[in-house]
Design brief:
Helix content: over 70%
Number of domains: 1
Number of helices: 7
Shape: elongated
Distance between the termini: 84 Å
Number of strands: 0
Amino acid sequence: MVRPTASTVPSAHAEPHLSGRSGWLRAAVMGANDGILSTASLIAGVAAGSGDKAVILLAGLAGMVAGALSMAAGEYVSVSSQADVEKADVARERRELETNPEGELAELQAIYEERGLRSDLAAEVAEELTQHDALTTHLRDEIGLTDLSPPRPVQAALVSAATFAAGAAVPLGVAAFVPVSGLIWWVAAGTLVALGLLGALGAQAGGAPRGRAALRVILWGALAMAATSAIGALVGEVL
């Protein structure tokens, strides 16, 4: 029997993992989905209460710009906060390793014992990994921090803003080229198609079932547009 050698066994780092895409993929999908749905809902609501196409397009354009800036600011603040928390955890672990190395070693051994290793083997593994890179080992095995998807606030902000604007351009573009009489139905149709494609694309990029993801966003998109259209119609009657 031929035993695998280091040269024949594929490296874990060479194998592609979809979870490494989670940072930018989440921001991109969320931005595009919000851009399509919120702008389409806004256009549908205004169109249901007003027959002025200029007003409808102005509302859609304002929603696209405001939404893109809001998404960028929200993502930047959110991811920056995450990065600050992780930096604080790193600093605390570094201090604990400097002031109480024996206690940290025992803590690491206990973690490996809880995962199923024998006491003597857990102690050996803890000592070996501590000698190799104590800080990285504690960050990974004690508090779950890895370098798989580090927080990138600027990237998240730019991706969210760009994808929101791109998504919002779909219902806004449809509204610009169709007559006012059937505008709501054209925008709704275009929006649902775009949402379905986006849901399937995001699922494929993340390795999830495409049909279920597409159906989920189409359902919620239809509900959102129906609700805003109904509210717009009621407000339009009052005014």
